[in-house]
Amino acid sequence: MGAGALAPGERLPPLRELAGELGVNPNTVAAAYRLLRERGVIETDGRRGSRVRARPATTPRESLRVEAPPGGRDLSTGNPDPALLPPLGPALAEAARRSARRPVLYGSPTVDPDLARAARAQLDADGVPDGPVGVTSGSLDAIERVLAAHLRPGDAVAVEDPGWGGMLDLVPALGMRAVPVAVDDEGPLPGEAGRALREGARALVVTGRAQNPTGAAVSAARAAELRAVLARHPRTLLIEDDHGHGIVDLPLHPLAGSVPHWALVRSTAKAYGPDLRLAVFTGDPLTVDRVRGRQRLGPGWVSHLLQYTVTELWRPGAVDPAAVARSYGARREALVAALRRRGIAARGRSGMNVWVPVPDETGAVARLLRAGWAVAPGARFRTASPPGVRVTVSPLSRDETEEVAEALAAAAGPPPAGRYA
Question: Average pLDDT by consecutive 10-residue portion of the chain (421 residues)?
């Protein structure tokens, strides 16, 4: 495979057949397949056998990006608007003063009690069941640790499709298999989630709000339907990603507590800046204890300077999340409305992204580049769902909305029939 003799997607021979051909014990071939799967080179789909992955697990979907042309506008990054990020100076200064008064040394608690209390109060207000709090270096770090705490290579994970490219990269990198679950504006479709779990997925990952790339947000009705699905599959590991906390004005409708083992993760990246590498998470005691125990054997803890900084930013009056949500909402809704007037059924219920269905991603991206706009190819986010492009509205001014909508309409053409038509 390393020499390129086997093409991406090519099926591997059955264990016993290959063992006979090579004249070795079948257990030797099984061990080799297991090692290749754990390294993300191949993927196994039950009785359908094993095949070479479409791309190595070390090649992130982020590499499927385009560069904005000279003088053009880059709407592809998924970054927040720097103008909406709070100044970190005062919070960092207070964190430094606190650290000087009581330095954190080996043996100190890994989670700052003030941060844990603030996080728990917010979670309680959002209806998240009681549970201990942990801190990780971002949401993907937390999700990886939770998956590793309960699953092993070869297990299947139900993921949103289209969904976050980082999540779609992480699953095969852990040697696991992603099972796509279609989404609409209200989140994962219950029938699709049920199908994935019936087919053997041991975990379900759901984005509560600001779903990347479609902007979906789980409604109260959809949450009730998904809880009913999970009740029929109580051994499922549930992971909820609430990275939209702080930038979305829609309420959270958590699924947490529907199954014995669950975790809900909140990142600070979108609200306070991607370089503030911190996420808080909660879950059932066993899950949190496993994650925190394994974390102690690696990095040990997330810097208390960062924890103190987030605690300061969470103090009443330090940040106005409602104003941030209104700003992103106005840009997003303006673009969706402008596209609708041009016959394009774009999606963008929450967050900072708009998903635009297109019949031909490559052609649409190329035409937009010629018009001076860079957008993210849908291939970064899709597994089996129809093609599209993601537009990040963070850099977009009101004056540019009609211009980019016109370019998108010209590049996209009539929306295809199907899930997002």
Answer: 62 74 68 61 65 60 70 92 96 97 95 97 97 97 98 96 96 95 98 97 98 98 98 98 96 97 97 96 98 96 98 95 96 97 96 96 93 94 95 93 96 56 36
| CA gap 134, 279 in Å, rounded | 8
Contact 239, 188 (CB under 8 A): no
> Residue 151: which CATH number?
3.40.640.10
Per-residue pLDDT at 65:
66
Collapsed DSSP state (helix, strand, coil) of residue 38? helix
Q: What is the span of the domain harbouring residue 35?
A: 1-59
The total number of structural domains that make up the chain = 3
The answer on 269 and 362 residing in a single domain is no
Of the candidates 313, 336, 359, which is a domain's last residue? 313
Sign of CA dihedral 399, 402, 408, 411: negative
**Which CATH number do you get for residue 80?**
3.90.1150.10
Q: Same domain for 123 and 267?
A: yes
% of the chain exceeding 90 in pLDDT: 80
Q: In this predicted structure, what is the pLDDT of residue 418? A: 44
DSSP 342-408: TT---B-SSSSEEEEE-S-HHHHHHHHHHTTEE-EEGGGT-SSSPPEEEEE-TT--GGGHHHHHHHH
Tell me the three state secondary structure of residue 113: helix
**Is the dihedral angle over the CA atoms 125, 260, 381, 187 positive or is it negative?**
negative
Q: Could you tell me if 325 and 365 lie in one domain? A: yes
- Cα separation of 66 and 43, whole Å? 28
Question: Looking at the domain assignment, is residue 419 inside a domain?
Answer: no
* CATH number of the domain encompassing residue 16: 1.10.10.10
- Which among 295, 395, 411 has a CA at the least distance from the CA of 358? 411
Question: What DSSP string describes 253-304?
Answer: ---TTSSSSEEEEEESHHHH-TTS--EEEEE-HHHHHHHHHHHHTTT-S--H
**Burial (Cβ within 10 Å: 0-12, 13-18, ≥19) of residue 419:** middle
How many alpha carbons fall within 13 Å on the CB side of residue 82? 2
Residues 4 and 27 in one domain: yes
- Strand arrangement, sheet containing 279-283: 133-136, 279-283, 262-267, 237-241, 201-207, 156-161, 177-184, 187-188
Question: Same structural domain for residues 196 and 117?
Answer: yes
Q: How far is CA 161 from the centre of its chain?
A: 11
